[in-house]
histidine kinase (Massilia agri), 748 residues
Amino acid sequence: MSSLIPRLRLKSLRSRLMLLVALAITPIAVMTVLGGMREREAAIRASEENLQRLTALASANEAQSLERARQILVDLVSVPDLLGPTPRCNALLADVLDRNEGYVNFGLIRLDGEVTCSAVPMLHPVNLGDRRHFRRAIAERRFIAGDYVFGRVIRKHTINLTYPVTDRSGTVVAVVFSAMDLAGLDTYVNEINLPLGSVLATADSGGTVISRRPDPERWFGRKIAPSLEAAMRAPSHRPVVVVGEDGVERLHAFARVGGPSLSEYTVTIGVPLETITAAAREAQLMSLLGLAATTLLALLAAWLAGDILIVQRVRKLMDTARRIAAGDLQARSGIAYGREEIGRLAAALDEMAATLQAKEAARSQAERELRAADQRKDEFLAMLAHELRNPLAPISTGAHLLKLLHSDNAQITQTCAIIARQVEHMTSLVDDLLDVSRVTRGLVSLSTQVLDLRKVVDDAAEQIRPLITARRHQVVLDLPDGPASVKGDHKRLVQVVANLLGNATKYTPEGGHIRLQLRLEADKEFVIEVRDDGIGMEPALVERVFELFTQAERTPDRSQGGLGLGLALARSLVELHGGSVSATSPGLGLGSTFTVRLPRFTQAVESPLDAAVREAALVSRPLRVLVVDDNLDAAHTLNLYLAAAGHRVEIAYNGIDALKLARVFAPQVCLLDIGLPDMDGNELARRLRRLPETAGATLVAATGYGRQQDREAAAAAGFDHYMVKPVNTVQLSELLARVAAADTPAPR
């Protein structure tokens, strides 16, 4: 070591600078290598999360297809012709097949396995008694999504979906089935964009492929690879790396299609590991190249620099660096870029400043693009809500109509109640999703008034009473005798309390206890405390229970699902009212307590509207009503409901036909959809206002769009009322009653 020191000339400036540069670069080189490794690991972790979300989306799409099939079979069971003569049964099933794309057959199976009727003509008798899904449907008395089969009648790749048919005593007398074309099932995941080389597959309970991208037709009915099947059947369903049959390493994520009561299918998405780590490798390579270039420049500068020249120019560089660090990205060194080291260092510093300046400009551009993307996201949510609400509207209206026409039939009344509850639940999920988006961005305005929290609690309890009754919970409401006056939005506060009670109901076992106490503390604020003896929470979950999409683990007895939005929405709405919300739990199995605090309002509560006014308004006279909707189901179910109420109804499916009808029919009320094919509902409303026959008519927007800007646009176009699909038939009846009371119709 002593003989090496003279050779390095450590007493010279150049040797010392070079040694210092070498020592300084060494840790950076080590950190660069370690950083590259961490970036690779971080890329894989991030991809795992994104892949899990993408897989969950794919499984949700396929679950939606199965749920639609289940609903079709449930509806078929209630049709008398299904068990009638074979020709009438065949005609019924053929009509159902024509109306539903993606299906290749519908049929009815007797208990001995013989297919008695079929939407597709059978050339010879067919017995399905050996089918596992048929036997399970009889044994388990519920909807069964069967494994892959190659249809005996239609000769196509299918999955059979079965549902038991029972008589009035509850005995299974037959099984109705639908054969879904696997090519149709595959279309539900076509909108999911995957990187090149990725694989998306769905397997049944036996590991047989029923959906795959790419090359679906080549894979239908084939077994998935043993290694992939083993990972798919693992209880954790964690993302794993599996080598495919083509020798490519892919990161696979898994998700069940629906709950256990819907199917035993599993979706997996595999993305090539090389694609995931490509960006990290490129970044590490660029870092190493940059480090190598920096090291070379620094060593050259240390070798050739002189004391005075280095000191003077380094001071300039230091001053420039300080200005850049202070945010002056236009700062430059002012040193001539020569071939010597300081000039090169000055050039590097100026280049860095220019790069930072360009990156700042790019960041600003990215921020603008993010804002634009956020706007597109809002538009997507609005369109999503519209598309989800459109099919809910005829379902809800049809259920109310059936209940109205068959009020003396207990079975139909009960079925209608079930349909109405499920439509209400689906509508609630859509509203929660949109409410969270609007509240978190400050786009919700409260309609505040002085109100009594006791009424809020009563309305919230009534809202979730069906769920409480179904789970046989013992609920105690501890309310004060006197008014509990606060200033707020009644609808939103009911939403908050209903979310807290609904959360307690979901996570409390059947027969459990829930207690809601409303009390005044320190004469300043009212406290709403919801306490249950349910599953409780771990400390880690308590800390983040009010975050978006956070949920405790649900066991099969808590099948009433949600999106993990209710508590996050409750916190945002309480904070908009100037209050606070908190949660506590002693631990797992020891229950939970949620506490809402709202400032007290000292003035007296405003008295509610006189109930007699509402009852008087309900005494309606027949009206001429024009329904305009391009959704045939929605238009016809609304027509049936209004006709059953005694009103005269005309239907138009586009704006041009609506204008022609209006001139002849002279409607007193016009129910208009916004999204029409030839002109939107707002333009149609403006034209109707210009017609003498409809200038004074009551215009009602009935649409799936629910954003505030949509409501404002409708008001500007001349609409008198705005209703979001599915239209609340009670509110619609009250509205028509008020119109009839204010306008005595002329004889026609």
Remarks:
- Residues 13-77 form the longest helix (65 residues).
